[in-house]
Amino acid sequence: MNLRRLVAAAAVGLAGLPAVALGQLPHLDPLPWYAASDSTSRLALEIQLDRSLDKTTDWAANRVMLTVTLPAGERAAWFVRMPYVSFDTGGLGALERWPDAAGDEAPADWPGSARLDGFGQIEVGATTDLRLPLLGRSGLGLALGLPTGQNSVYPWSSTSMPMRLQLRRDVAPGGDAHLWLGGGLLMHADATGEVLGPGAFPGGWQLDAQWVLVRGHGSAWRAGATWEQREGRTSLLAAVERRFAWTREASFGVRAAREFAGAADRPAQWILALVWRFDRSASQSSVSAPRP
Predict the structure, then answer these.
(1) Domain count, the chain
(2) Cβ–Cβ < 8 Å for 245, 216
(3) Is 290 within a domain?
(4) CATH of the domain at 273
């Protein structure tokens, strides 16, 4: 199926899903949008090591996340990613922190207060360019979480199926600096169970602003903020990243993100990350470079 038609069909499906009950904010990673600092081939492997901290609850999480991107046409790419997470609840279990997340048969001490670890949810998706009425050429992204995660490491993973549809546009194209503005919808399917009920998986909407200053392939400054409303719960996450190139096919990045809203509902207050990206050589690719 043509990728543009697939994304459009998914938009119709998202609009028809039922809403779920009030809940907190399980962690979701931003879509792997492409920038001019990335490879022109769009065939790449990214390895991210991150640590999430929250001083109000003493929660701390460490993750290793692998992301593979594959070309899907002239201005489109598929992606697959899988995290492994290990975190310490600081003596405060998930259902003690968020009672609304409990299912009908959840034990009072689940998942306990010990150190927890396990593979997170596999996520698949695609990003592409579309020319839309009034907006012109825009970026469209779709992500689907597969029910392969583990509820024991919630809120960084679960057996639900989060579905995201996002749209963004470069409002300052040209040159080395770009300003992206966007928004999206989030819904969950198959989000009920004995331990975690529908309240553990709030859906809602997102607004996003990202500024990128390109310094050549593999080198860039990025800064931005994301505002989310998920069924009455609010998140304002600001992030900054510096990416350095050490070869034409490899880059290294340092990223810091801070949550400024929803202290009682957030998975973490700080997220600090190191990112390694390995691209297929641009000289080997017959695919034209995507817009930043």
Answers:
(1) 1
(2) yes
(3) no
(4) 2.40.160.40
Rounded Cα distance between 152 and 155, Å, is 9
Token pair for 86: 């290990």
Cis peptide before 155, with omega less than 30 degrees from 0? yes
The whole model's pTM is what? 0.83
CA 115 to chain centre: 24
Q: Name the token pair of 46.
A: 């990214």
Residue 291 lies in a domain: no
C-alpha separations of 150 from 8, 163, 229 in Å: 30, 17, 25
In sign, the C-alpha dihedral spanning 67, 70, 73, 74 is positive
Give the tens place of pLDDT for each residue, 197-227.
888 888 999 999 999 998 877 789 999 999 9
Classify each residue of 39-50 as buried b or exposed e, where b means 16 or more C-beta atoms within 10 Å of its C-beta. Answer: bbbbbbebebeb
Count the helices and strands in the chain (H runs, E runs). 2, 13
18 is a domain residue? yes
Asked if residue 99 lies in contact with residue 21, where contact means CB atoms within 8 angstroms, the answer is no
